[in-house]
Design brief:
- The chain has 180 residues and is an alpha+beta fold.
- The protein has one domain: 4-Layer Sandwich (Double-stranded beta-helix), CATH 3.60.130.10.
- It has five helices and five strands; from the N terminus they run αααβααββββ.
- Strands 1-3-2 form a three-stranded antiparallel beta sheet. The protein has a two-stranded antiparallel sheet with strand order 4-5.
- A hairpin with a 4-residue loop joins strand 4 and strand 5.
- The mean pLDDT is 86.
């Protein structure tokens, strides 16, 4: 949408809130993201030389967003693109080209293992530390939140290791009646 009087992150947050969707806290995500205001987070805070791989926003946690809103406060001179792909098309293409592999993924699921420092590593697109991953500095609260997300959290010095899975790789989109 263009031509609307939305010029700041605060304005954008008001627009997003006006849709009335329930807020989904950024708990369990891998990318370091500092909350700007309300529901507004930067797309990614890693250095520009780091590629952000194609991914599904927080699909590794039980409650992932079904809608994403994008806002550009200051357009970059170059770059800054956010490619978007429809998940059902990826599933269909994968199923066509690699049917045995997709069948195994559907059968076995996927296990995510992440090593988390205490603090975020801004040099990595997936360098979120345990404190910002679980929105706390209290290890007990982090453990409780990990359990709610279906993760096993193991402490290793100042940081931790999370193991989640197996989780479904392929999910069924009830709204649209198709696999994603």
């Amino acid at each position: 949408m263009r031509g609307f009087p939305v010029t700041t992150a605060f304005d954008f947050d008001c627009v997003v809130q006006a849709f009335g969707y329930e807020e989904l806290l950024y708990v369990g995500g891998a990318a370091p993201c500092t909350n700007v205001v309300g529901r507004v987070f930067p797309a990614n805070e890693s250095p520009p030389d780091q590629k952000v791989p194609l991914h599904h926003e927080m699909d590794q946690v039980p409650e992932f967003p079904s809608k994403l809103f994008f806002f550009c406060e200051e357009e970059p001179a170059s770059g800054g693109e956010t490619p978007i792909v429809l998940s059902h098309l990826v599933y269909n293409r994968m199923r066509e080209r690699y049917p045995e592999f997709v069948e195994r993924l559907e059968e076995l699921g996927l296990v995510y293992t992440r090593i988390l420092g205490a603090a975020d590593d801004p040099s990595s697109p997936i360098g979120r530390g345990w404190q910002s991953t679980f929105l706390t500095t209290d290890r007990r609260i982090a453990e409780e939140r990990a359990v709610r997300l279906g993760m096993k959290l193991e402490w290793m010095g100042d940081g931790g290791k999370t193991v989640m899975g197996p989780i479904p790789v392929v999910k069924f989109d009830q709204t649209r009646g198709r696999k994603i």
